[in-house]
Amino acid sequence: FPSHDNQHGIITLDSDIFGSRKRLSTGKKSEKRLLAWYEKNFDAEYEKLYNAKFNIEQDLVDMKLREYGDMILDLTVNNRKANVQKYAKTVFRIICDFVISGRKFGDFKLNEIKATHIMLWQNGCGLASQTIATHRVYLNMVMQAAENDDLIRKNPVRLVKLPKRVPVRVKNFYDEEEIKKS
Question: Quick one: which of 33, 27, 95, 102 has its CA closest to 66?
Fold first, then answer.
């Protein structure tokens, strides 16, 4: 809520709307009329101040998993060898192409992704547990960057345990006649 308890009489807005408590200065001297206005328009004004202070543009807030992940992988390219970067991009593309409720995972906005979506991906991707663990590293890195950028409150990947065993895929073997036909 708006307050003016600082030594200079400047109105500050104090909230934990985005996960961690922050006090943001409006830069305006405290007056009864302004305090009432900030109280009435608190949420919108706090969000404006927060975005301005932490350089969060609306484009970044509205980014989808695929575009944000590609951006993060490109920004962190110097942390990986070229062949590992190529592998990371391929893995991330595979994750983004997984379909959940008729939508590709990569088409979800960052703030739409919940722990349940991570579980659906892990249980439905058809990969071995060790492969899922390897793929999760890149998804976790992207979601952790989103949390660090205050685009999401919590990293949903950290909230979901790695499955010990995933459903076994049915293996199709050809019999002798099918082999002879081909």
Answer: 95
